[in-house]
TrEMBL record:
It holds the Pfam family Pkr1. The keyword Cell inner membrane does not apply. Keywords: Membrane, Transmembrane, Transmembrane helix. InterPro entries: Pkr1 (IPR013945). GO terms for biological process: vacuolar proton-transporting V-type ATPase complex assembly. The keyword Transmembrane helix applies. One of its GO terms (cellular component) is endoplasmic reticulum membrane. The chain crosses the membrane at residues 25-47, 54-73. It comes from the Eukaryota. Residues 82-104 are annotated as: Disordered. This is Uncharacterized protein. Residues 84-97 have a biased composition (Polar residues).
Amino acid sequence: MEHTESKNDDLLAQFLTPGSSRYPLWIALLHGAFAALLCVFLGLLWMTGGNFHIFVLIGIEVCLWASVQWFLYELQKAPLPASEQPNSINAINATENMESKKDQ
């Protein structure tokens, strides 16, 4: 049981780190959440017989989903910061600093 909880904590910590919005798993979960919300609204639309308020909520949800899609598209076009690039000078310096501390 403890092993499962630590995996969940690791997953949550991964999503809360800067730059986590570039992970494919996070993007898939985001699309799943929007799709589930749309299904709920469509179910409510059917149950209420076409209530105007549900149409408005569906419109808001679709616009929010589209704006998040646009943001993720623009984020993918943007270059990674130097601290997140694996071959950057900062990463090399950090590795050298860690190795020098181990030697001491």
